[in-house]
Amino acid sequence: MSRGIRRAVDRVVWPVVGLALAVAxxxxxxxxxxxxxAIRSAFAPTAGFAALGRLLAExxxxxxxLLSLQRIGISLLLALLIAVPLGVWVGLSPLFxxxxxxxxxxxxxxxxxxxxxxxxxxxxxxEAPVVFLLTFAAVWPILLNTAAGVAALDRSWLQLAHSLxxxxxxxxxxxxxxxxxxxxxxxxxxxxxxxxxxxxxxEMLGVSAGMGYFILDTRDRxxxxxxxxxxxxxxxxGFALDVAARAVTARWVGxxxx
Length: 258
Known about the structure:
By secondary structure, the protein is an all-alpha fold. It folds into two domains: 1-33; 37-257, MetI-like fold. It contains twelve helices and no strands. The protein is globular and about 75 Å long.
């Protein structure tokens, strides 16, 4: 078998086989779910994919998809604005790292969902608590990877900058930030995955649209075929976002190596 054929098999054939096996297990699981034929049929792959096609054709899902992506985008932007400066500060200041290291590790291990009641009490019901929870979830991977990137910098460059009387802001702008982009992108990808997982339960906080709201609504309406369609959409969107983040990281790394 030639290298090109082997690569095509690895990239296309085996993933397709894996997905086919997953659908087969889905069908088998739906049959074991209940003794009621109507429920088994509603959870079956055929019903889920039929509902997905119908919802996309009618446009019923697009509002939920766009709002969820908008919330993720806003939250990740806020997380970057918070985490990158803090991570640089942790990496450059041993004193600040000692003061905040234990605190940051403690907060990182607190589930973002445990902040739900406080977020609603402080920010009310609506967009604000959802964005807060997603931002809280996304901050830590970016912050810790940024700090690790600063720690991994070649110290001779920093010493050279200081010997040339560069100011602290000039060192950060011209040496630190360009040198940690790969670490920041890695943290961003991890943050994206965590925020996407938190998104669905966070969108059950009284908002009127979004994929989390859609899942809750289909459950309440007993529309189990649409519920399964929603799960498929969440998985596909999350996978697509991760592929995009991986592509950006790989392109940046390849560009710098070239």
